[in-house]
Amino acid sequence: MLSKLFKLSVCLFLTLAGLSSISAFAQNRTITGTVLDQKGQPVISAAVMVVGTKNGAVTDLDGRFSMEVPSGDVKLDVSCLGYVSSIYIVSGKTNTAVITISEDQMTLNETVVVGYGTQKKVNLTGAITAVQGEELQNRVSHSVTTMLQGSVPGLNISTSSGNPGNTASINIRGVTSINGASPIVLIDGAIGDLNRVNPNDVASISIIKDAAAAAVYGARAAFGVILVTTKSGSNSEGKATVRYSGRFGWEEPTTSTDYETRGYWSVYTHNLFKQADNEVYITYNGYDMQQLLARVNDKTENPDRPWVVEQERNGKKQWAYYANTDYWHELFNDQHPTMEHSVSISGGSKGVKYLLSGSYDRQVGIIKAKPDVFGKYNLRAKLDFDINKYVKMSNNTSFYSSSYSYQGVDNVENAIAYSSRHFLSCFTTKNPDGTWLYATPYINYKVGNGRHIALGNKENVNKDRKSDFANTTEIVIKPVRTFWLTANYTYRLFQNRNTNRRTNFVYRVNPGEALGVYSTGAGQDALSESVGTYNYVSSNIFATYEETYKNVHHVTAVGGFNLETQNYKGVGAIGQNLLSKDLNDLDLVGPNADGEVITQVSGGQSEYALMGFFARLNYDYKGKYLAEVSGRYDGTSRFASGSRWGFFPSVSGGWRVSEEPFFAPAKKIVNNLKVRASFGSLGNQNVSNYAYLRKVSSSDLNYTFGEGSSLPKSSSLSSPNASDLTWETSQQYNLGLDASLFDSRLEFTGEVYIRDTKDMLTSGVALPSIYGASSPKMNAADLRTSGYELSLGWRDQVKVSGKPFNYYVKGSLSDYRSEITKFDNPDKSFAKGYYEGMRIGDIWGFTVDGLFDSDEEAKAYTSNIDCSYIKTRMNGGFLAGDLKYVDTDGDNKISIGANTADDPGDRKVLGNSLASLQYGFSLGFDWMGFDVSTIFQGTGNHYWYPPYESMIFWGPYANPYCSYLAKDFLDDVWAVDNKDAYFPRPRQYAAHSGQAELGAVNSRYIQNIRYLRFKNLTVGYTIPEYITKKIHIDNVRVYFSGENLAYWSPFKKHSKYIDPEAAFTRDDDGGSAYNNAFYPWQKTFMFGIDVTF
Amino acid sequence: MKKYLTLILAVALCATSCDFLDRTPKDTLSPESYFRTETDLQLFSNSFYYSLFDQEIYEEQSDEYVCRTLSNVLRGGTYRTVPDTGGGWSWSVLRKINTLLGNINNCPDAALVEEYTGLARFFRAYFYFEKVKAFGDVPWVEKELGSADPLVFGARDSREFVMRKMLEDVDYAIEHLPSAVSVYRVNKWAALALKARFCLYEGTYMKYHSLSFPDDPDAHDAAYYLNQAADAALLIMQSGKYKLYSTGKPNVDYRTLFTEVDADKGEYLLAIKFDKGLELFNNTTAYSFWSSQGSVGMTKKAVDRYLMKDGSRFTDIPEWESKSFKDEIKDRDPRLAQSVITPGFSWASTSKSYDSPKLDETMTGFQPIKFVMDLKDKALNDDVNRSDRSYNDLPVFRFGEVLLNYAEAKAELGTLTQDDIDKSIKLIRDRVGMGNLNMSEANANPDWYLTSEKYGYANVTGTNKGVILEIRRERSVELAQEGFRLSDLCRWKEGKCINQQLYGMYIPGPGEYDLSGDGKPDLCIYKGNDKPTSVSAYIWKIGEDIILSDGDKGFFDPYQKTSHEFNEERDYLYPVPINDRSLNKNLAQNPGWDDGLGY
Fold it and tell me: Which of A8, A679, A1074, B504 is 20–30 Å from A538 (CA)?
């Protein structure tokens, strides 16, 4: 569709351009004519060109045109959107013409890649959305996965970090299983990684959403299938097409990094929060505070007021720190450059097609002292050739390699997370003598956990490397027109190699003292190297039969066999005390102070095997009644031999109402109308490789018996799982409607579905701790997810200033809800995690009715209503500025009742943590060589209760020592003169437990993180071909593209520092430091050029 | 043709498919073929030892040792809450022990089976002792539980039942564990020491909490446990395998015992090995010498309990309460100067013979040095003076404790004789050059201080009251900072001791004070805004840098605004976590704990 529009606009452009320059041509007659379709109706806006000239016209509302032509016979080239272009000859003897052109069946013949074959889009009976490669071309995000965000209804993409090279996670149709399974991704038929595909290589992506379409992938397809087809060469009669695309730009955080940088307020705030427990964080006295206040407005150090002052205290020389350090920007940059280059060469001649493509993507990250750099290389070579009339072969080789080098401890996120503790703005990263600041007598902790040293000393060198090689050889034997046999074999080798170096933190505490060395934990001098290698082999053999009987019965049958194995082997080694701080090799491991060489090795391997027999039968009658039956019989090594085989059938049907005779009157408006329904059953083997077995493993014990110079070994027996573990199955019902109206200018697709996930592999029952191990996994729970998806698109061409103006508007919308339909928890106890009837994602919490205005009010209220449930850190009890918890059940006591859904105490459902609606829309146009496209994407109501380690949100209510404190945080903190504040009276750790004032989930602090994101803006200009042709270039386009440009969310009101997507993807109640602070989400601005010759 | 092809393919592949899908682990072993050899049994049981390493050995806060921030247990009141999970209610170690016991019959060697059964049952008793101390009644489990086992959702067994089971376990261990001395691996003597410890615990707990089990026909009484404790201790004492560490230097030996890199095999029955090369460290040195680790200090009350060198009581001296640091620590039980820094203190390897407590490193002024490795020159950041860098071995059971347990059990039983004291307390005192404890004198004149509600134990009664108080004093002094204090208070039902004042050293008023005894002031205290000039290391303003209990004079009072409230009705036992009670309604909560659950 798009390409045709494009062609048309080019053609019109050329026509019009031609019209303006025809004067030089000899004119000696005028012809008039009409363009009609096969049914005799006039065709509007058809372009009529005189072949070999730039002379042309456009038909009017009645299909009429008129123009001057040379004398003699002339050839007219007639083209129009939705019709096949044709040449019509007007003899020199006549000046009129009635031209009939035929509808372009190609629109209706558009094919979609499905499992083990292709199908006509109009004949699809399952829920499949196809994305064409061109749609990805303008995008400047760094992976195909993120490019798909917002473009396919029901496809949910989320990113859990802004870290370069971080991969997004993919989900199709919401909660698939409580095990959180993802769809399988097949790249040219073999399991692959969507994040590793060069976007320029993509010809199309099919997202298979329902069971019927996915059934041929049986065992692993329960949660959808994504089929990526890469481009091939084309038969261009020996002429190669070379395409180069280059982009340069920069990235910066989507959120603010403007934290509190004034030492005075940083110290004041944290000590204020400590006061609730009569504690101090930093032992600064009145004099120190005066010194800080004197400097509070100094953006840079004023020579009269140095930021670090040497003083004599407690008999020692000490440094007093009075700085206004912008710690975030001491460590990290906001703007950082990025670039991308890709080249492809394709072509072919009779019997041979080839494609070669390569790309390089380089992102520089945020770390300031020595920036982190992510580099990604892609290479693909594809060759298709005919061995003889009956046999075709193809070979497809791809190679991916990435490397991410960075400073820090273990990983960048660790460095960012731990840097967020204990660096108050009054500190400086270095002492006046140039040594690092790490410990100071004023606080009980280590400044910034020393992460500024790890990020700044340029010795903590880390490199994560990944490579992925895949080769597929395929042979297609087609002895007769109706039958062919396909066999392919894929070998894939992928590897993760990580190098992590740590060195000692060397620092000074007091002036003149010896240097301190922190040499354990994060400061341990050690080099760790690990290699994980995966070998994957997949083989498919399948036969296809396609025939049409009596012109009405169309049958396609596919049947075949699939084998897959993958094995993994890991090797790791750690050595301590290297001989060099700059060189990183295990050969440089040296002795420690006692002369001992400390090394550690680790291994590990695993494998799995899969085998499946699949078949599919399609039948349609006149393209009107459609039916499909498919199924797969699958076996896996992951279950015990009695439980490892499963059969997964599906059936679907469709009715193209628009093809019925009775529909004919409406067909002028509605070109295509199809209803379809499907049902199928799929499996999921989402357990670890040997889950049904109990295993004895051996590892080092961090203990010694004084027997020998290495750590003793210790063995352990894995905790038991149900030994009859078997497939989790998902049964899906899907109902769909496809319609296109107004000459296919308006396209609509709607789907509703129900998916029952049965026998989910889960910890069957939450067991009390006395069990002594994690609860065994068994096939114990059922889940129902139901939802709908809608997409609507309009595209058209109008004239603006006499020039064709193509535009489109597209939108999609999807929603779902999930409920547990079976789980062994008759009491509906929350402690067991799930219960029947539980809606996944519900957030239960207390209701809060504002803050107490006075101590008297608080005392009176709590003497009437027992609020003692909220007791953690409630030193002094409830006071003015504390939360007024509402006794919703009227028992004069704030409680959790029996902690069940039926008796939740004073709690109720405050919201749901799953996005209620996911939507995306895009609009764009092109005109006179300019093209503009925009993409927006967002979610509806979506609730989030900030986890207790989210220091960026809670500030000192989480931990009273955050380095990255929100600017002017106290403006939001209750005080006698600030009673309308959002947060209650200052109390340290108030968010830190389920029974703490803010840690108890409540209505006041639950956040609605719905958002609308301006995902992409692209503005391009294609230089007219008549200019580029002169330098033998087919096409040159320059453009600007921006990704993640802005977002709007009610959540911004309460935190400008957390991207809404970061909120829910990093939600972790486990109290991980990784919520303290993280790599910010990035927006990208790039300028690019595409050249084709 | 295609039909045949498909058929052939299918048949060929089906024939191989069974093998193809059988994939067994290549980096782990199967349990059926394991637990056969001594190596198997040893490797599997090695991890049990991990549960021995309990940091409370040196960092338990109590009324005798405090930190900058009082622990929640010490603060009590609303600072103690019912946790959602954890809080000591963890059972994974028990599961491992029971797993070994359940599979041990794979081993064909009967002697090995008995020895490792003994080892596992030792650790099970050790495990359950911790549970009973914390929770009182706990479920008894002696097999690896299946998920459907009723015991998973069972009720708590009475502590009396559990104690009897522990006795069976420990008696089996005593019978079957090797009797050779082995300081880092459990042997018969460690098992006896465990038995003495938990039997004394239970005997005194029953006695002071007036616990009895009239409905349980098999129940033992307090006397039974006390007798068991005394008998077990006596067996160790009579074995001749253990003796107190002494080189005849009463002013050094006591401390040396705890700072040596390798455990003394004479005194330690079982110790935890630390190793610099293997980077297995404890945190003892940094804990006492890094202000950032909490500025630990011994309380004034604990210091007061040390006798004078001549055996008389410090608290009998007139004006004992208002003595300055220098006078207060003069001529005391030599263990005081080996437990906290006092004038004349020196590190073994340096010639510098005067040192004073670093007042920014200790909340009370009494800076602990027990377990602190030799710092040489502290300013040089010597390798042990860092967080988690000490590698002195730590005791699990030591002979000194065995002797104290023996004397206390006998005293509580009422069967104590001077002869018993001569073979227990006397040995302990001999090492540090202190005179013996005289039982009749002690009983004739019970210490007013140790009897008082303000400073001591109000609950002790009976004819042995005097000697029991003296044995408790000996225990406080000898086992200082070894992690016994809180559990001792629990079994004696003396939790109220936590409510007593947590003071530090006494300051008579503004002025300069010499704490190291070198004639130069180390501390200068002033009031008002005019900071005096002084050579003192610490120049402190009253009310700002230092808070004193009586305004311008008095004791260091770091917790003036900090409540520490022991709840007599609640705090002798820990709460059962909310999640476990939610999952298992048969699990009763301990008295006084409100977890919000309506049952």
Answer: A679
